[in-house]
Amino acid sequence: MSLITTLIKPDSTLHVVYARIVSPREYHLVTAKNASIDIYSITETGLALIESLPVYGQIETLLAFQPVKRPDSDNFASSSEGNSNSNSNSNSNSTDWIFFSLNDGTTHVLCYSSGKFVCFKSAERDNEDRRASTTFSLVHRAVLDPSGSFIALYRSVGYITLFKISKRALEAITKPTSVGKKHLESIFSQAHIVSPIDFVDLKNMTFLAGMKSPTLAVLHKQQEGGRRTAGNMSGDALYSVNLFNVDSSKTKLIPRASLNNINLTVFHIIIPISEPLGGFILLGGQCLIYCRGSEKLRNGTGSDKLDTQHVDFREGGIGQDQVFTTYSEIDYNRYLVGTETGHLYLLYLKAVDDLGREIQAYLVPVGQTSPATQLVHLSSNYFFASSHASLPVLFQLESEHNSFSIRIIEELENLAPIVDIDLQNDDNGNTTITTCSGGVTGSSLKRIEYAYQVDRLAEISLDAESEDIEAVQSMWQVGNVTATSFLSGTRLISMDEDGEFSELKSWQGIDLGMSTVLLGKLADNLVQVTSDRAWMPQLQKSWSDESIAFASLGAEYLALCILKQSVVILDETLERLHSMSFEDSISALNIKDDGSYYAVGFWNTSKVSVVDVQSDKVYIVDLGSNSPPRSLLFIKETGNEIIIMIGMADGAVLVFDVLKNEQIAGFSIGDQAVSLQEYRGQVLAVSTQVCLIERQPESSFQRHTFFVTRIHCETPVAWCQLPRSVYGEGAILSASDNGVLVVSRIASNPGYMCAQERRFEKSFARRIAHNYNLGLTAVGTLPQMLWSQNHTADSCTIHLLDQSTFETLDTFKLEPSEIVENVTSISSEMIEFEGFIVGTSCDDSASANYESAVSTGQGRILLLIVDRENRKLRLCTDMKLAASVFSIELIDEKLTAPTVRLLYTYQSHVKELLLNRISNDTFTLELVPGSTLKCSTAPLFISSLNNKVVVGQLLQRVTSGEYSPSYALDKTASCVGGYWQSNVELISSNRVLVCDNELNLVVLEISSEQENEPSNLSVIYTYRLGELVNKAVRLPRGNRWEQRFQKSVDYKSHIQPQAIIATVFGGVYLYSEVSDASLDEQLDILQDNILANTKTINAPNGGKKAIDLYRE
């Protein structure tokens, strides 16, 4: 039994519409992100997410319509696809509905009624039970005819489904839950599947405007063989545009006219043209074909051939290395069109005569964005470009003196497409994920961390009287007043019930001329501590000393550090109760809330003293560190246990049992002094990073467990908590270096988010590997080459980066036309080697094409050593081979002393390679003769764990075995696992994950009846994830998920998180093995412990929670 949990939902924006889905008076941007429908409102500053609806399955098509039956005699005045929100016949008093289809063949309609979203779904798949194509393509589309009466859906090879809107949909507008059982039969009275014979290799389709009856134009491959014509001398396959009328009574297509012999290398997309021009155009890079049709054809009185006009652009044009892929209508003669590289152009059509039978065309460049899968015109020259290969972007088209440009308003975060990932456990058990992400125009290296998100709510600027802004020393919150302390004095900020801030010139007798060491309530009375006194203005009492360095406040007791070496305890009336002197200078001070104990840290001795106030007994805690403590916090005290948390000057946080003088936990959160404060039952630790430290409930098997989670925000100089206010519970006020105060709120639940990014503008990050001993990352990049308008030949490059900052330390260029296929980190104490081994392929076409590289390519293995002192790469040795090297795997070092043994792919074999040390800086690579595994097809992937090894081959087959120095692999077994594999990973001694290009995750089991007999390899689970799974990576042990699962159920249940799965569309998932079948009912609880629950709009099993839950 397995458990698959979403860590990061896929954010590739595949489809988008601009619709009035919530209110008939307000438009919203509706995006389909592979497995969710997100609804945004548009503001002056960008997009604001108002609803995210998870969908169980991959979304293939999306469109907006109104479920109102129009009379068949209505003239169709506008186009349906280019501008999704355009509908001149729409009912202004009705909301739009969303039609979408999934990759499993089902169709759905989403609407909003009575304050909630309602989803209608097809009762079952289409009557052929066909599954949609599994790879992304622009030909998966749904189009709406301009009258709103028909929807045409194309989702699998050769088939078009027509839906006719039912009159019962009028009832569904006002009361959708009463119609049928929320099945599409309630909305669409007929659904007709058109024969596939006419639509082989369909490229595009659209309904046309200006036609008497609904007319569908279909661009598809011609049935007869391609032949040479004046426009096609190469003999390439030719395409046709066929026009069909929709028979309203029988819901079928009637052929009307056709345009044949279209060469798709010249003309790429079909665009319907609105009235008064009408017709459609086939758009190419240097010209277009305009097809309007005769009056006979437009009136529907009979079949006729299409009248066409070949139009060369009077201005503009694009290079032959680009193609147009998408468009958006601005008005009837202006269109924004985009290429596959993200370049945008304004297409302007002008009628030559009054009848519009001839036109002129102009193509004007306007700028570049992410490559768009779809362009949508919003309003006021605002556009949205959805993208599955880069960042979706909201932008505005600006013009000045007949010159156009674009202004980027907002880019949406997107990990897709994830090309490669690597995992790392930090000191706190959190698994950090580093991804190679990006598409056509460039890519990024992104560090994804488990962290709390901070919402920035307000900003307060403290106007300085001089140009030099003083640094904030500390901040204290009392009621609705914040005291901000500077070296020269104290400033008071008040917050009213509406969240408005104002500065106070005086307040309850507080001394604003002195820097405040502490401000708070002592037994319900205000107390201010400065460098020379403790002052209670309400009682007009004070306790004076000219050398107060630190202060700590309990409920009824105040602790002061005097003369740097003494501690004085005062009661609620500032009467002296206790004092003690120490030999060393004090660096930190903290008193328990009830005043029973206080703790003192010292500058020069690595110790903390905990003092019992009643008995004056001193407990010594020996820290064993060269760094002094800078912050102390009591977190537990019972009759036999006192637990204290210590923030060190070097960024470490230590947890000690005081009575036992025993360290029970320790972690690092930065490299500067740590400040510790209580925050909503947890501990907020601030160093160069900001973290929340959460203590877990004790159990029978583990008493002290702490989870440290980073807060994704700027490091504050000082901070304080705000009381319940207009900003809600948990709001904090922090100060930055420039004296600006910021109100923020920490999210209630943590999640994975991008913490750092390194962009490669003219290349693509393809392979990644971490060297944890040196804190370095190696990234293999592929040059942009053919995807650029002005490309130049370049080589693949190995970048050496600092693992923490992603700063480039060194680069190493490969040979021209050499492609990096694999990067593996090697850290061997036995031969004292630190570096990377790289496998390459060589393809004269300079493209990463597996088929050509496997059959005709060559390859090389490079050994790159890292100079520890200057952190530079040096080529130690290389080995040229007559075949591509797609994978190199390091065998467990424990088995291979005194050399490092590796397995690598070579033609149809897996062979063994030795890494030997000759001298201090000299190493060699040695092929092991006779050690080989013969595969039925080319091996592409190798994964190993201890002495177990699995090999994924080019087509379907997976082989497992045990490493043997004599045979490479021994005791082998094979089975079919997935089709056209994208990755194979050995996640345990008997489990293998296989990712394939059919959207499957296949789990294989390695079993053996007898110890010395060959193992069996068999498929035990196949999961249909609905996404193209690119890679699975085995989780390092000691990760945080193990601890969370063990806290959720009985420890003996063995729920083991084992792998991270990444998909092309940007989804990241956690894969776990559940060995106890009795836990089936508890799986929902386990999911709750990972991420907060959400609801799906089409979840199986009667609308269960939207968790990616897959059972045996």
Radius of gyration (Å): 34 Å
Arithmetic mean pLDDT: 79
* Count of separate DSSP helical elements: 6
Uncertain runs are 69-89, 123-139, 170-181, 225-235, 786-792, 845-856, 1048-1052, 1087-1112
CATH architecture of the domain at 772-934: 7 Propeller
**What is the CATH T-level topology of the domain at 772-934?**
Methylamine Dehydrogenase, Chain H
Helix content: under 10%
State the end-to-end CA separation.
Answer: 5 Å
- Sheet-strand content, in percent, reads over 45%
What is the CATH class designation of the domain at 772-934?
A: Mainly Beta
Helix and strand content put the structural class at: mainly beta
> Strand tally, please?
83
Name the CATH homologous superfamily of the domain at 772-934.
YVTN repeat-like/Quinoprotein amine dehydrogenase
Tell the overall outline. Answer: globular
Largest sheet, in brief, is: 11 strands, mixed
Describe the protein.
With 1112 residues, this protein is mainly beta. It has a domain at 772-934: YVTN repeat-like/Quinoprotein amine dehydrogenase (Methylamine Dehydrogenase, Chain H, 7 Propeller). Helices cover 4% and strands 53% of the residues. It has 6 helices and 83 strands. Strands 30, 31, 32, 53, 54, 55, 56, 57, 58, 59 and 60 form an 11-stranded mixed beta sheet that branches. Strands 1-83-82-81 form a 4-stranded antiparallel beta sheet, covered by helices on one side. Strands 2-3-4-5 form a 4-stranded antiparallel beta sheet, with no helix packed on it. Strand 3 (26-32) and strand 4 (36-42) form a beta hairpin. Helix 4 crosses helix 5. 46% of the residues are buried. GO terms for molecular function: nucleic acid binding. InterPro entries: Beta-prop_RSE1/DDB1/CPSF1_1st, RSE1/DDB1/CFT1, RSE1/DDB1/CPSF1_C, WD40/YVTN_repeat-like_dom_sf, WD40_repeat_dom_sf. Residues 797-1095 form the RSE1/DDB1/CPSF1 C-terminal domain. It comes from Sugiyamaella lignohabitans. This is DNA damage-binding protein 1.
